[in-house]
């Protein structure tokens, strides 16, 4: 077996392949490692046949949909997964064949309704059902402490004690454990009766994941993250330096238009002299009246250079092909001790 464990913060993903046929799968990939996965597969000579999400993740952004599209391969999830882009759905005890490898799916609800673990040969990928020294939480959407008790004690922990455990998360630097070691030392598994276990899980008082809403939204629907939107916009928008802006202002270039897309209060508190005000939220509705010449070079300005990037990309889609964005935004402009003007007049 070809086996690679890839850590992204506390998230764990796995590249697993058949050493005879060089067919492989990628389990629980994270967006940040997109190119790294492809590089590892190429290094090992693997052709990835499936990309698998063991459940709907709530604390990071899955790369499954993008990898599925890039490689033209199925995205595999449990049959209860809400994601519309999952085009290969496994039920409990069904087997996914990859070369000469056999991955057996175990439906293990509790952390989420669609959670599944995957066992193969001497190991089990336990997702967020069983962690090293812990278990998945049950206080997020779809969580059920009683169901997690059943999944742990009636399914996962019934595997042989020597079975290696590879979870989807670990925040303490561990790479693997075994079923036997977890039974012996995992503090949450010492509550071996349902009521005490449920009571413990319902009073953990854990803080919410940083990107909870965005992660659930994108992983359940296949929608884009804010980072993806910004990256896509930045790929089609040129940026202009503060020095270039100063030179254009000094030359009083008639083809150069400064467009400040911040809200009114921010604009009036201080803007680049000569900048026209058009809030981002009104851009599409006012663009024809306020920007009648699509051939002009438009430099879009915001506070940090993020909203202006999105606005410039929108302008380009609307036919303003010379729209650009100020690199660093007004924050960088002020930090450079460059002139600003207060009030509502450009």
Report on this model:
The protein has 346 residues and is α/β, with parallel strands linked by helices. The chain is built from 12 helices and 19 strands. It folds into 2 domains: 2-223, Ribonuclease Z/Hydroxyacylglutathione hydrolase-like (Metallo-beta-lactamase, Chain A, 4-Layer Sandwich); 229-335, Oxidized Rhodanese, domain 1 (3-Layer(aba) Sandwich), CATH 3.40.250.10. The strands form 4 sheets. Strands 1-2-3-4-5-6 form a 6-stranded mixed sheet, with helices on one face. Helix 3 packs across helix 5 (194-201).
Radius of gyration equals 26 Å
* Overall average residue pLDDT: 93
Number of domains: 2
Span between termini: 66 Å
Classify the secondary structure makeup into a structural class.
Answer: alpha/beta
Instruction: Kindly state the percentage of residues in helix.
Output: 25-40%
What name does the CATH topology of the largest domain carry?
Metallo-beta-lactamase, Chain A
Strand content is 15-25%
CATH class descriptor name of the largest domain: Alpha Beta
The coarse silhouette is elongated
The CATH homology group name of the largest domain: Ribonuclease Z/Hydroxyacylglutathione hydrolase-like
């Amino acid at each position: 077996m070809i086996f690679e464990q890839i850590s992204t913060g506390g998230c764990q993903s796995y590249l697993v392949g058949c050493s005879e046929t060089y067919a492989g799968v990628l389990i629980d990939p994270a967006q940040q490692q997109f190119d790294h996965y492809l590089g590892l597969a190429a290094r090992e000579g693997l052709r990835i046949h499936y990309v698998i999400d063991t459940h709907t993740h709530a604390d990071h952004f899955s790369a499954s949909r993008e990898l599925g599209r890039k490689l033209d391969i199925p995205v595999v999830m449990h049959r209860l997964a809400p994601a519309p882009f999952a085009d290969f759905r496994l039920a409990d005890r069904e087997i996914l064949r990859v070369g000469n490898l056999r991955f057996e799916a175990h439906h293990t609800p509790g952390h989420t309704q669609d959670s599944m673990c995957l066992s193969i040969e001497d190991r089990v990928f336990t997702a967020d059902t069983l962690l090293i020294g812990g278990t998945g939480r049950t206080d997020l959407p779809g969580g059920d402490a009683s169901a997690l008790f059943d999944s742990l004690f009636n399914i996962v922990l019934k595997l042989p004690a020597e079975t290696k455990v590879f979870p989807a998360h670990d925040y303490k630097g561990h790479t693997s454990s075994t079923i036997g070691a977890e039974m012996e030392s995992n503090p949450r598994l010492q509550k071996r009766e349902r009521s005490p276990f449920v009571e413990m899980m319902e009073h953990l008082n854990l803080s919410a994941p940083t990107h909870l809403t965005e992660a659930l939204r994108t992983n359940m629907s296949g929608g884009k993250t804010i980072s993806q939107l910004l990256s896509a916009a930045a790929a089609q928008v040129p940026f202009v330096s503060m020095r270039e802006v100063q030179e254009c202002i000094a030359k009083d270039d008639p083809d150069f238009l400064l467009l400040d897309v911040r809200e009114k209060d921010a604009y009036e508190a201080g803007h680049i002299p000569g900048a026209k005000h058009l809030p981002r939220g009104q851009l599409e509705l006012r663009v024809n009246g306020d920007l009648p010449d699509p051939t002009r070079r438009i430099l879009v300005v915001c506070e940090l250079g993020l909203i202006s990037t999105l606005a410039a990309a929108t302008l380009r889609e609307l036919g303003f092909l010379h729209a650009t964005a100020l690199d660093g935004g007004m924050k960088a402009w002020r930090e450079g001790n460059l002139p600003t003007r207060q009030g509502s007049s450009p």
